[in-house]
Specification:
The complex is a heterodimer of chains A (about 1100) and B (about 290).
Chain A: H1 3-16, H2 22-33, H3 39-55, H4 60-76, H5 79-95, H6 97-113, H7 116-129, H8 134-153, H9 156-170, H10 174-190, H11 193-209, H12 213-226, H13 230-247, H14 251-263, H15 267-280, H16 285-299, H17 304-319, H18 323-330, H19 335-344, E1 348-349, H20 350-365, E2 370-373, H21 374-379, E3 391-392, E4 396-399, E5 402-403, H22 409-428, H23 447-461, H24 478-483, H25 489-511, H26 516-527, H27 538-550, E6 559-560, H28 564-575, H29 584-600, E7 613-614, H30 618-621, H31 661-674, H32 687-696, H33 710-726, E8 759-767, E9 772-784, H34 790-799, H35 801-814, E10 819-825, E11 830-831, H36 833-845, E12 854-859, E13 864-871, H37 880-887, H38 898-914, H39 920-938, E14 941-949, E15 955-961, H40 969-976, H41 986-999, E16 1004-1011, H42 1028-1043, E17 1046-1052, H43 1057-1065, E18 1069-1072, H44 1079-1092
Parallel strand pairs in A: 2-4, 9-15, 13-14, 13-16, 16-17, 17-18
Antiparallel strand pairs in A: 1-5, 3-4, 6-7, 8-9, 10-12, 11-12, 14-15
Chain B: E1 3-5, E2 12-13, H1 32-41, E3 46-49, H2 56-71, E4 80-84, H3 91-95, E5 96-101, E6 104-109, H4 111-118, E7 121-125, H5 132-137, H6 139-142, E8 147-150, E9 155-158, E10 164-169, H7 182-185, E11 189-192, H8 198-209, H9 213-227, H10 240-251, H11 256-268, H12 272-285
Parallel strand pairs in B: 3-10, 3-11, 4-7, 7-10
Antiparallel strand pairs in B: 1-2, 5-6, 8-9
Helix pairs in contact in B: 8-9, 8-10, 9-10, 9-12, 10-11, 11-12
The chains are: A alpha/beta (about 1100), B alpha/beta (about 290).
């Protein structure tokens, strides 16, 4: 019997008591070790195992593992080391055998990455996770299981860090700790080696700051830093952890945003940005991250140097200690940042110039044109597809949302101007007014002739086919009839576009000498970007050359030397529209002549080396306009039309943009039709006609509906067109409140059936921390107030009959005499007898007086406008009784007599049944009624508005009565419907009211705000409890009012109002109405005082 | 002409002595000259309507000169008495008043009284500005009676032969408050003055300012464009007068862009955005 068997027999019985499989494990281990260890060592080894099994309740499992793993370990360890290892296993088993099992099992592979000496440290790391409960034991076991492989990618030291993180997570969620641990290997093995440590460091910060984000970080982090330059990842992650240590839970979202922003930056540029961010991080970590967040946006508008200058301003703010200001600056939530950006950027944005360009276009064309972004036109899906090119559909000029062509802002603005002028030119010079077969100024129309020829041809070819309808052309528009004359519609459309643009360009050049320079600059810019002619088919090259001539650069024409006459004929014809007074009719005729030339040119490539493509000679450049005649010159024949290329019209130069005369005429016609202005001759367009037009038209790109079936797409498209023709293209609905130019221009009463129409306005908000405005921060939606019952108004009048009469009387006393007498004048209308006598007396006495004995009556007009701004926040729903109780603690004394109390209660209920308890809003409404009555007596113009809303982008502004509006039953009904809604964001409401008062013409302007408490709203402050921000913004808004010459006044029924009103109002008048019920009486009185001042 | 004072380098004359001795430049737009002559012949009062600066005053000066010339008699010609009306203009401002002088009072005739006496063209400029009671005063003068009651003296004054009452007003900017009463309105025939068309305006600008026709035509073009903005940011289109000013500045050597800026853009409006838009029109038309 070998020693192995002996040992096995000796212990198997003992071991069997622990677990049935142990003897087998032992045997296996013995067999593996017998080669390595001598008898005594083997015996010691078995004893260790047995002791381990005895160690604690389930430690035999560890023994089992010990037996199995030992042979492998023995290869790596000396026997004494093996003993030490087993001791570690034993002490781990003290805590939990499961952990010990995992440790022993994981040891061999761990030893691949660790020295034996580190084994103990490693074990301690696992032990640290074990806290005695089963979850922690499982986690620790998992740790040993995972870390074997983890150690391949992380040093022991880093694993220690990881353990620390996991340990921290266990305090919150074992599940999270588990999943983080499980995913660790995958994450770290995929990370570059040098990134692992910073990644872990940041993970630690994240866990400490907001443990729940750890999972997100482990899930998304690797992906997020993937697109950051490998050299900079460490810097970025270090920065992120510093930031997170500074700002806590905000850190992770900032990291995500910043990383996403950095993704958009080319790798080589990231370094400088990160360096900058790292530099400012010590002053404000948030600012650093906000900076990174904003960089893609800022970079799209500024060059590197400009961006440096832009950033400097933010740094300056930091230097001055205004960290909040710098954060807002880099977050681009500051007016200063935007102004700086706009000042530095060469790019010109459409919104900043659109209203000016609109007026410019109106001046030039004399028509009611609007200016909108091309994106809007594309959205309407009526055939225009380019979002970046200027165009017009006959009533509106569409311009690209921004221009960044040149490097200076001024030049880019000029580009906008050229765009606008050219599009306006199409309206001004009648590009869409083509009438069939009308003669031009310089040419006679051949259209009718062509039409009859065409018919003739058709008749002869259809000789047998007697179907009548086949040649009954249906046409919807004049220009369509014109295009129908040509077989190749694509070609004629392209040529006509070039010719007509030439004509318009020529007019612009003649009429507007001031922009000639810029027009030329753009034309040259375009010419430099034209494609190579030589590669084109010959016909296409011909058209391309026409376009170059049209851009005023005939010198860039390239054409085969031996066929020059054709080109010359073309250019000569094109020159016709450069003549003064040329009309669109001329363009059409020239286009047909050019078409005749072009169709004869086969579209084959002509690259044979024997023919030179020559630039034109002097004569060609100076060519005189003429229509092509009959005689052919001795010219090389056109090549045979062999392998023709597909013909494509040359790409439109950017400044000319899309030109779609057919669609425009169609829309005009539809519009007329819908307005019932069809002239007697033309019958209304049928759906079939329209479909035909659309199907034939080359102005609609076919691939737009390639996906669906043609008919249904066309139908939808047609619906869009008709819808569009129905709604007059007018001013954009949304207008910035800042510009507030032509608002309120008329239509007050005629929107009766329409659903609630909301006009949106944008206002800045004052951020007192940054001491700067947040640009366009709040969106105010102005709408008409709902209408209720008329009875309400009458009821209030009756109920307060006495008070109404009284206030009316008081107000009538205020009405100024229309003439005021001015005395003691040297010249005037009447002689003041007293003065005259005095004068005479003085004169007699020799006192040398002045003959100031006349009086004059001077007209003085009362010119007051007042806006009442009512708080419609939810809190105004509160019953006054309750409110009173809040302040008025002393309960009625019932002397502990329940019957008395019940009696009182019953009485109160009865009272309430007859008359429901009054709410604050009810008193606001009653006061409104009284004030209205009084103001009607005095004749001041007044507006009544209510405000509420929720959040910064939904401030509701209800118009009960506009300043310009007359007082009528609808206003009366609206007063009934003043109801509590939501929050109180006072700032934007005040600003909007200021805007209204500012637009109104009056000498004295007053704004009276009635509220029941402090300003508050969602996001109106750093957090829910902060009140400072809202108070400061409101104060700022009130100051803005004063700056505009408006007297603001606040009335509140909030008895606690004194504290914040003192701060909010500073030197602005306010009043806290103690007895709420006196509000209806108080308001008119206050107004009287205010208006009299 | 009786010149009261001529020694100090300035001329001072009694209102009724003011006559137009040299032909003012006036380019008839349509038949207004014939109309006015006929009205004068028939002693029908005339109302000139039109925006500011289109030549209403120039027209009346021209007519004063023309009618004068027709009479072939320089002494008994048609003097022109102009009264600029304002809201404090009273009846006594027009008719006359007693002034205290030393120990006594002295009656001083007002402009309308003087015109009635000498048979002048009495031109009430911007008449809507005057108070309503003032306008009523002229009623008896304007119908067949041709009488001016001078209440304070208890006199009735019959208008001399050459007397005619002419008023001007601008229907553009008067509010509902400042409309003419119908009873006043309907005592006048009305001649409408509009802006001249581009060619006419070109001629006027060129004649008045001395610039050559090409610049004058650019100015006229500018005017046409700016007038498109009326009611869309501008209360009133640019007047021919302003264009003439611009032309004069250009004639003096100021660059066209700058001249238009001061004479047109800034003169027209204070609204920055509108200013900017007009400026862009200017820079589109005139080269640097």
């Amino acid at each position: 019997m070998s020693s192995v068997e002996a040992l096995h027999d000796q212990y198997s019985q003992e071991l069997k008591g622990f677990g049935a499989s142990l003897p087998d494990d032992l045997l296996q281990g013995l067999q593996g070790l017998s080669e390595i260890y001598d008898q005594s060592q083997l015996e010691q080894w078995v004893k260790i195992g047995v002791n381990l099994a005895h160690h604690s309740l389930r430690s035999w499992e560890a023994t089992s593992e010990f037996f199995r793993v030992s042979p492998e370990m023995a290869k790596k360890l000396t026997f004494s080391e093996l003993k030490q290892w087993s001791e570690i296993g034993t002490y781990l088993a003290t805590d939990a055998s499961l952990m010990s099992v995992a440790f022993i099992k994981g040891s061999p592979s761990a030893l691949d990455s660790l020295n034996f000496a580190d084994l103990d440290i490693w074990a301690k790391q696992g032990q640290r996770l074990c806290r005695g409960n089963w979850k922690s034991i499982a986690l620790a076991a998992l740790y040993f299981q995972q870390s074997a492989s983890l150690l391949n990618v992380l040093s022991l030291e880093l694993v220690d860090r990881l353990v620390e993180i996991i340990d921290q997570l266990t305090e919150r969620s074992y599940e999270l700790a588990n999943s983080v641990l499980e995913s660790s290997y995958d994450i770290f093995s995929n990370l570059a080696e040098e990134d692992r440590e910073p990644f872990l460091l940041f993970a630690k910060s994240v866990t400490r700051a907001s443990w729940a984000d750890t999972r997100l970080y482990f899930e998304r982090g690797p992906k997020l830093i993937e697109n950051i330059s490998p050299n900079e990842r460490t810097i970025f992650l270090d920065l992120a952890s510093k930031v997170t240590m500074d700002v806590g839970r905000q850190g992770f979202p900032l990291f995500v945003d910043a990383a996403q922003s950095l993704e958009e930056i080319p790798l080589e540029d990231q370094k400088a940005l990160l360096l900058f961010a790292t530099n400012i991080a010590p002053n404000s970590a948030i600012a650093a991250m906000e900076y990174l967040k904003s960089t893609p946006f800022v970079r799209s508008r500024l060059t590197t140097e400009q961006m440096e200058r832009w950033s400097e301003v933010g740094v300056e703010l930091l230097r001055m200690g205004n960290a909040e200001g710098a954060e807002a600056y880099f977050r681009l939530e500051s007016s200063r940042a935007e102004e700086m950006l706009a000042a530095l950027s060469a790019r010109v944005e459409l919104p900043s110039v659109s209203s000016m360009l609109r007026m410019y276009a109106k001046a030039l064309s004399g028509e009611q044109v609007a200016v909108l972004s091309s994106e809007d036109l594309v959205d309407r899906n009526i055939g225009w597809i380019s979002e970046a090119a200027p165009t017009t559909e006959g009533t509106t000029i569409y311009l690209p949302p921004f221009v960044n062509t040149f490097e200076e802002q001024g030049s880019n603005f000029q580009v906008y101007k050229v765009f606008t002028t050219h599009q306006t030119g199409r309206l001004e010079f009648g590009s869409f007014n083509y009438a069939f077969n009308l003669d031009g100024q310089h040419t006679e129309s051949s259209a009718e002739l062509r039409e009859s020829d065409q018919l003739q041809n058709k008749l002869s070819s259809d000789a047998e086919n007697t179907d009548e309808d086949s040649h009954a052309q249906t046409v919807s528009t004049e220009i369509q009839r014109y295009f129908n004359l040509f077989d190749d519609r694509l070609l004629i459309s392209g040529i006509f576009t070039i010719v007509e643009d030439t004509r318009v360009g020529s007019y612009v050049d003649r009429e507007y000498g001031g922009i000639r320079k810029w027009l030329q600059r753009l034309q040259n810019w375009e010419v430099d970007r034209r494609p190579e002619v030589r590669a084109m088919g010959l016909r296409q090259a011909f058209v391309e050359n026409l376009l170059r001539a049209s851009l005023g650069r005939p010198d860039t024409i390239r054409w085969p030397q031996d066929r020059y006459t054709t080109m010359q004929k073309g250019i000569r014809a094109l020159q016709m529209v450069n003549l003064e007074h040329a009309t669109v009719q001329d363009s059409a005729e020239v286009a047909s002549a050019l078409y005749d030339i072009a169709v004869l040119i086969p579209n084959v490539p002509l690259e044979s080396a024997d023919v030179e493509w020559e630039p034109p000679d002097e004569e060609m450049i100076q060519i005189a306009p003429d229509m092509p005649g009959g005689g052919e010159g001795g010219e090389a024949p056109m090549p045979a039309s062999g392998d023709e290329l597909d013909f494509e019209n040359p790409e439109q130069p950017e400044f000319r943009g899309e030109f779609k005369p057919e669609l425009v005429q169609l829309m005009m016609k539809l519009k007329d039709q819908q307005q019932g202005q069809t002239d007697g001759t033309a019958s209304p367009l049928t759906k079939e006609q329209l479909m035909e037009l659309l199907q034939n038209s080359v102005e609609i790109t076919i691939n737009e509906w390639a996906e669906g079936d043609l008919a249904s797409s066309l139908g939808m498209f047609l619906d869009n067109l008709e819808k569009d023709a129905g709604t007059p293209a007018g001013e954009p609905k949304e207008q910035s409140g800042e510009s507030g130019d032509e608002r309120g221009g008329g239509d007050g009463g005629d929107d009766e059936e329409l659903p609630v129409e909301i006009d949106w306005f944008y206002y800045d908000e004052w951020d007192f921390r940054a001491s700067d405005y947040r640009p366009r921060w709040c969106r105010v939606g102005e709408r008409l107030g709902d209408e209720g019952e008329l009875d309400y108004y009458q009821d209030i009048l009756q109920k307060h009959h006495g008070l109404v009469m009284e206030t009316r009387r008081q107000f009538e006393l205020m009405r100024p005499e229309s003439f005021r007498k001015i005395k003691r004048l040297e010249d005037g209308h009447e002689i003041d007898l007293d003065e005259a006598i005095q004068f005479y007396v003085d004169k007699k006495a020799g006192v040398g007086p002045l003959a100031r004995i006349y009086t004059r009556r001077n007209k003085i007009e009362r010119d007051v406008a007042v806006a009442f701004l009512l708080d419609m926040s939810a809190s105004t729903d509160e019953e006054i009784e309750k409110q009173r109780q809040k302040y008025q603690e002393e309960e009625e004394d019932f002397q502990d007599d329940p019957s008395k109390y019940f009696q009182w209660l019953a009485q109160r209920r009865a009272r309430q049944a007859i008359e429901p308890p009054k709410r604050i809003i009810d008193l606001e409404k009653e006061s409104t009624v009284l004030v209205v009555e009084a103001l009607e007596a005095i004749g001041d113009s007044y507006g009544i508005y209510g405000f509420s809303g929720y959040g910064r982008d939904n401030v509701e502004f209800h118009v009960i009565k506009d300043l310009e509006e007359d007082f009528n039953d609808r206003v009366r009904k609206r007063i009934d419907k003043i109801d509590p809604v939501r929050s109180t964001r006072m700032g934007p409401a005040i600003r909007h009211t200021i805007q209204k008062l500012d637009d109104h013409d009056a000498k004295v302007k007053i704004l009276i705000m009635v509220s029941d408490g402090r300003p508050q709203d969602h996001g109106y402050g750093r957090d829910r409890t902060e009140k400072e921000y809202a108070v400061h913004d409101t104060k700022q808004a009130l100051n803005e009012a004063k700056r505009k010459g408006i007297t603001p006044f606040l009335i509140t029924v909030d008895k606690e109002g004194h504290d914040y009103l003192k701060q909010m109002c500073d030197d602005i008048g306010y009043e806290v109405v103690d007895n709420i019920e006196s509000l209806p009486r108080r308001l008119p009185t206050l107004y009287r005082h205010l208006a009299a001042e | 002409m009786t010149t009261i004072e001529q020694s100090q380098g300035f001329k001072q004359l009694a209102v009724e002595d003011f006559r137009i001795s040299e032909e003012p430049f006036y380019l008839p737009i349509s038949d207004e000259v014939e109309l006015f002559e006929s009205a004068y012949e028939q002693k029908i009062p005339v109302l000139l309507k039109g925006p500011t600066g289109v030549g209403k005053t120039r027209f009346i000066e021209y007519m004063s000169w023309k009618l004068h010339k027709n009479l072939q008699d320089s002494e008994s010609g048609v003097p022109l008495i102009t009264v600029a009306c304002h809201e404090d203009l009273t009846a006594s401002d027009l008719v006359g008043r007693y002034l205290l002088e030393g120990e006594e009072t002295r009656w001083v005739d007002g402009p309308i009284t003087r015109a009635t006496k000498v048979g002048a063209i009495c031109y009430l400029d911007e008449v809507v500005e005057a108070r309503k009671d003032t306008t009523v005063l002229i009623h008896p003068l304007t119908d067949y009676r041709r009488l001016l009651p001078v209440e304070k003296r208890g006199e009735l004054l019959e208008a001399a032969d050459g007397f005619i009452l002419v008023m001007s007003y601008n229907p553009g900017y008067q509010s509902a408050l400042k409309d003419l009463k119908h009873s006043t309105r309907q005592r006048f025939i009305a001649i409408e003055f509009g802006y001249p068309d581009r060619d006419q305006e070109t001629e006027i600008i060129s004649k008045e300012s001395g610039v050559d026709l090409s610049i004058a035509s650019e100015l006229a073009k500018l005017a046409e464009k700016v007038r498109n903005l009326k009611e869309h940011g501008l209360g009133e289109g640019v007047s021919t007068r302003l264009l003439v000013y611009a032309g004069k500045l250009i004639h003096q050597g100021i660059s066209p862009r700058r001249a238009c800026e001061v004479a047109v853009v800034w003169a027209l409006t204070d609204d920055l955005e509108v200013q900017r838009s007009i400026e862009e029109v200017v820079t589109s038309i005139f080269e640097e």
